[in-house]
Every structure is written in C-alpha cells, then in structure tokens.
Design the sequence.
C-alpha cells in the first residue's frame, strides 16, 4: 500500500470550483497508484462564514471568558464542515470516501484545550478504510483525548495533523497544498520577485517557519523529520512541482562538498512585537534584577524573545498584546521600563551563514541605504535577526531580499 497524505488549506476548499480542483489532485494521486489520506482545514480565511476566526467571533469578547473545552468544540466545527463538503464532492465524482474527525482517525492528544499536543496516533480506523479502497478525509487541526474529549491543536494545526498521519501511516510523502507554488525566498505578498525554492532541508524550513514564514507550521516539519518523510509544498491550482522538503542539502549530489551550501535560504518576518528596555542604571543588585525580571515574565505566562542581557540594561521583546501587561508588571516591581510597540522581527535564514564574514555588514548596509533604523540585532549559527519598526517592515524585507540577490 502506497499511502500519500494530501493536506488542503483553507483557501483551497473555499469555493465549489476550488473543491473540484482539490478532488482533481486526489484523483491524480489515485491514478498514480496511491491510497490518498486527505486532511482538510476549515473553509476560507477570517471573515468567511465557516472559517475558524469567524466561529471564534461568535463568542470571543462578547460573553467574557469562554470555557476552553467548549471553545475547542466550537472551533472543531470548521474542519467538520469542510470535510463533509469535500467527501460529498469526492463521492459526486464517483469515489468512495469517508470523513473521520481527528479523534475517530486515532489522533490522541493531551487535554491542553486550544493547544493540544499529539501523544500518539492509532491508525487502525484509517487503515481499514484504505484497505477497502475508500478515500479517508480527516478533519485537520483537531484530535481527541483518551477520554474522548475533542481538542484543537493550535494555529497551523492542520499541517501538524498531516505530518502526524504521514508518520503514523509511514506515508511515501506528505503533500501540503496551498495557494502558493512552494516555499519562496520571502512572503510573495510582500516581495514581488520572491523565488520558489526547489528543495529545502527540514532544518531550513523549520527556521523559516519559526521566524514567521506562515507557509507551513514548524511543529509539522519537526514531526515529519523524525521519520524522514518527505514533505512537498504545492499549489492546489497549478501543476508546478513545488518545493521538496527533505534532510538532503540542496546542491549536494555525489562528490559535492559542503561548501555547496547555499548561503541564504530566505527571509521571514514576524510583525506585532513590542520591544521592552529595562534600564539598570539606578538598580543596586543588577544580577538579582536580571533574574527577577525573567522570573516575573514567566510567572505571568508572557513569552519573551530576542533577549539581550547587559550590565546597563535588559532588552527583550514580547507580543504586542501583552506589551502593556509586561510593562505594568515591571513598574510594579519598581523598574522604569521603556517600550516600543508595533515592531517587526526580520530574520535572514540560511545554513551557510555560519562563520561567513560580512553577512551582518551587508544587512546593516541594506538597512542604512533603505533608511531603516535597526532597533536590535542578534544572530545564531543559521539565522540573523533584526528588529525594526513595523512601518519599515515591508521596505526592510524588500531591501534585504534585493541586497542578497534572492530574487527570481
Ligand atoms: P493554508 O491556508 O493553505 O494553510 P497559509 O496562509 O497558512 O495557507 O500559508 C500560505 C501563505 O503563506 C501564502 O499565501 C504566503 O502569503 C505565505 N508565506 C509566508 N512566507 C512564505 C514563504 N517564504 N514562501 C511561501 N509562502 C509564504
Ligand atoms: Mg497554513
């Protein structure tokens, strides 16, 4: 049995015409000899009638606290609706198809409603259908606890569903169908001449995804990587080959040495972050203060990023939504924090960056020429980050893309 997992995102199932295109991709897989297992997201994007955000808007901010368990039940409806519609589409074209919810498909999670972790997958129910020649459609983004409670997996959860099933079913590949023709050197919504990458490694795309490239969820990549199942990112609406994600370095045919690494894979951006600076000027015990600050953030469940601890000051970022809360906490502790809300973190990702001199210099030059102020910077072996004001985000991404000649 050659199992192929095919995941279709929200825009791919938004209209009857598009669902016909989805069915065509499933049909193609069948004619190539695969047994497809299909994962669907909720129909459409924010504002569309059955999109997850629309379902959320029925309760959020209207009735105060929404019970988490019920919130997950509400959110799980989006995928059930699109799954039922897709099964009907497939049946109308002569295929035998069945819809399974996450729980019915054997996706067992913990009970962290809203952000549940998959503990294991029991694939028997899927396999039984597959063995009978039935196309299984599984609702993405959800699972069930051991006790049978419905849970959701958090943002990007349908990608995670696809990967978990791919691993559990030992699929030949996990195909992520979306509205772009592959992983690109930057978000095509911002950079017009962003180029499609033929192949990327799990590590490269995990980095890009963690830094904000929305095209696939990083957790999904990490799961597929455990079993070395190839992921392909493709468009539902074209026959372009897409991007292949494997553990293989690009340009690493037999005899190639590792200097064949490409320097930079791509540029990612994360908007809506707040920079916080806590001066240590009038602080008596600086080391103690450093410790207390991060403990207080952790206690308040505020996740911090871009941390730079120095004798004179402590610098870090938080998401805009929790900026005021973080500052309030610091003030209550007797500090005098300064904040810059509405920033954006821009990341240059590339396995080849490590140890190559001049990358940072080029980055700084590009920002200077574009008139963009760098508020903070940091680097690790495969990523360099800068923080800029959000109003400069688009210009900064475009300038870097050009400077490093990533375009088509
Ligand atoms: P789906 O609903 O199919 O899951 P998403 O919106 O989650 O689709 O992901 C696809 C979107 O990701 C694209 O429309 C594109 O704007 C965005 N994107 C961001 N960064 C990249 C990138 N580096 N390459 C390709 N797409 C990207
Ligand atoms: Mg997505």
Sequence:
């Amino acid at each position: 049995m050659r199992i192929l997992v095919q995941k279709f995102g929200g825009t791919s199932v938004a209209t009857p015409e598009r669902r016909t295109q989805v069915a065509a991709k499933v049909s193609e897989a069948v004619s190539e000899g695969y047994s497809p297992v299909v994962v669907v997201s909720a129909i459409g994007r924010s504002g569309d009638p059955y999109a997850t955000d629309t379902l959320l808007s029925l309760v959020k901010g209207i009735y105060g606290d929404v019970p988490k368990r019920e919130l997950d039940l509400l959110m799980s409806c989006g995928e059930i609706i699109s799954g039922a519609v897709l099964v009907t589409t497939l049946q109308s074209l002569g295929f035998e198809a069945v819809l399974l919810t996450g729980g019915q498909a054997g996706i067992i999670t913990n009970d962290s409603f809203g952000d549940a972790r998959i503990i294991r997958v029991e694939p028997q129910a899927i396999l039984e259908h597959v063995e009978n020649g039935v196309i299984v459609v599984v609702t993405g983004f959800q699972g069930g606890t051991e006790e049978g409670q419905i849970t959701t997996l958090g943002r990007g959860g349908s990608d995670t569903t696809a990967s978990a099933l791919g691993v559990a079913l030992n699929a030949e590949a996990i195909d992520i169908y979306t509205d772009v023709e592959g992983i690109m050197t930057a978000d095509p919504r911002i950079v017009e001449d962003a180029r499609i990458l033929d192949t990327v490694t799990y590590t490269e795309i995990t980095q890009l995804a963690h830094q904000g490239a929305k095209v696939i969820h990083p957790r999904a990549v990490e799961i597929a990587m455990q079993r070395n199942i190839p992921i392909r990112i493709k468009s539902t609406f074209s026959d372009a080959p897409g991007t292949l994600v494997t553990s293989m370095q690009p340009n690493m045919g037999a005899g190639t040495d590792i200097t064949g690494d490409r320097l930079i894979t791509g540029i990612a951006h994360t908007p809506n972050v707040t920079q916080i600076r806590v001066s240590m000027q009038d602080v008596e015990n600086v080391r103690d203060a450093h410790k207390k600050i991060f403990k207080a953030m952790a206690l308040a469940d505020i996740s911090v990023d871009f941390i730079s601890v120095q004798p004179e000051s402590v610098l870090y970022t938080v998401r805009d939504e929790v900026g005021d809360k973080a500052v309030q906490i610091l003030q209550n502790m007797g500090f005098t924090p300064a904040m810059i809300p509405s920033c954006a973190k821009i990341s240059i990702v590339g396995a080849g960056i490590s140890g190559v001199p001049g990358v940072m210099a080029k980055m700084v030059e590009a920002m200077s020429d574009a008139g963009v102020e760098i508020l903070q910077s940091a680097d690790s072996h495969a990523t360099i980050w800068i923080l800029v004001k959000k109003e400069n985000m688009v210009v900064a991404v475009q300038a870097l893309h050009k400077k490093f000649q990533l375009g088509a």
Q: What stands out?
A: The chain has two domains: 3-179, 266-403. The domain at 266-403 is CATH 3.30.2130.10 (VC0802-like). The CA atoms of residues 366 and 399 lie 6 Å apart.
